What we know:
Shape: globular
CATH class of the largest domain: Alpha Beta
Structural class: alpha/beta
Number of helices: 14
Number of domains: 2
Low-confidence stretches: none
Mean pLDDT: 93
CATH superfamily of the largest domain: 2-enoyl-CoA Hydratase, Chain A, domain 1
Strand content: 15-25%
Radius of gyration: 21 Å
CATH architecture of the largest domain: Alpha-Beta Complex
Amino acid sequence: MRNYLEFEKGLAEIEGKAEELRAMARQNPEMDVEDEAAALDTKADALLAELYGELTPWRKCQVARHPDRPHCKDYIEALFQEYTPLAGDRNFADDHAIMGGLARFNDRPVVVIGHEKGHDTNTRIERNFGMARPEGYRKATRLMDLADRFKLPVITIVDTQGAYPGKGAEERGQSEAIARATEKCLQIGVPLIAVIIGEGGSGGAVAFAAADKLAMLEHSVYSVISPEGCAAILWKDSEKMREAAEALRLTAQDLEKLSVADLVIPEPVGGAHRGRADTIEAVGNAIEGLLEGLADEDGADLIAARRKRFLDLGRSAIML
Length: 320
């Protein structure tokens, strides 16, 4: 059964009616409903294109959070071969919100790291809804160290509301762990490609996305805080999330204009959840292209260019 977002109610009614007609025909083969159902399909397609042709920033946030979008695990299974997960931070525990390990991407040895939200109730609880604890960021730092030692490109897949804000995480040094992971992104002398596939929330995303190249799916978002959190702080009213989403300039299109994102990857009409295979293929093609552009770069040059990239972003922000 398809999950519909709040702004898709009209679409749900049309597609529901078409499915009802076809269900009736399956029960009674003498009924001829295909012409009527096809007309409803055409109407639904037109409405879908209209809705997704003019998404507001808040609606893009809703699409980015859609539970049926492909998750990190889906991309790793489809795009990487010989994936060997590496667990634990060698200090406290293994954080299941963070996946990571050795793999091959188009026959190229790489290290892949990403946030995994889970796809049902049990796996979402196991994965803590993609919100990493300190040990998750320390695991990522360890894997980036490993990649640097063996000269393996790093690919990160970002999809998180943000780092886990619980008491235990803070006691174990959440902010320090995020800072160390961000620092490690900037220090490694190998290509680092980051792809935001859904939500890129706060420092929990920056810790994986301080990269040479940042790609974003068309309906993904990337911001320092969620619209709800921003609204609660600025207006003391989380219901003003629509205004906050507009002000944050968190869409892939806005961030490409600001030179934060290097590439916006198109999604099928209706979002990644309506064309999972096509979306995964598009992400794979984007990663391949970005990696090819960095393949011949020297380690010292990569570090220097990465440093300049973020200093330039800071200078641009001051000018705004």
